[in-house]
Amino acid sequence: MKTLRECVKEAEENKVAIGHFNISNLEAFHAIYNAAKKLNVPVIVGVSEGEESFVGKEEAVALVRSIRERDNYPIFLNADHHSNFEAVRACIDAGFDSVIFDGAKLSFEENVKITKECVDYARSVTRKTSRDTIVEAELGYIGSGSNIKDTIPEGAGILTKPEEAKKFVEMTGIDMLAPSVGSVHGLIKSGKPHIDAELVKEIRKKTGVPLVLHGGSGLRDVDFTNAITSGISIVHINTEIRIAYVEGLKKSLADKPDEVVPYKISAPAMNAVEEMVESRLKLFNNME
Ligand code: 13P
């Protein structure tokens, strides 16, 4: 079975992107997996620090690994936006397939220092166990919080400078970079800014590593396709999943107020997430 590293390489070669979707519960996990399996494409499930503390670190690893091994299917687990070395190290130890150290708010020097620490630790584990953990880091600030926002938050959307990105990758040895190229985290009511595809192209060329687009919720289809053909290999979506889940759940509770069976109440929420993930995966994998 292909590793995540191999799947990312293949996505790059085919000019498609792997979808990365966050989970807070088992319902979202099954919905994401069902959608990916239907289309037969690799998929990444992510947990932020908050999601991880709710789902459980070891539980998330066991869940993803059990399905991957049972079905021989390329589904992977990512530690999304972890804010310090200790949190990243714990996920590497637990068996995550990839980790993201998010030092975007730090100074360049501090971001380099901690990112390098994460990379060195991941490599030392690989030497000892032959378990390969991909390390991603962020440069440029795209805001935080997968929720609904009225406007783009102050300070978010600071674009990554290609020369600085090159230096950052050289100094840290990361496997993948999350640059700031126009998107911001969350669903912005007043509309998201556009993705700067030329900037994506330039950063990809200068850094030589696969690029990851964060803040996917609310972007126009054309922004995704331009970003992917310009060098994005993974796209992250979270807020749209949360909205699909909550809307599905609210409708379910309103439609059947006397229902008490949890899996029956949750089914419409799961279906809503599955539908949303399937449509994004089709787009990212050039299937429409
Ligand atoms: P959105 O919440 O904007 O989809 O961003 C998700 C994300 O980038 C998670 O890493």
TrEMBL record:
Its cofactor is Zn(2+). It comes from the Bacteria. The active site is at residue 80. It holds the Pfam family F_bP_aldolase. Transmembrane segments: none annotated. GO terms for biological process: carbohydrate metabolic process. Keywords: Metal-binding, Zinc. Zn(2+) 2 binds at residues 102, 138. One of its GO terms (molecular function) is zinc ion binding. SUPFAM superfamilies: Aldolase (SSF51569). Binds 2 Zn(2+) ions per subunit. One is catalytic and the other provides a structural contribution. Zn(2+) 1 binds at residues 81, 185, 214. NCBIfam families: cbbA. This is Tagatose-bisphosphate aldolase. It comes from Candidatus Nomurabacteria bacterium RIFCSPLOWO2_01_FULL_39_17.
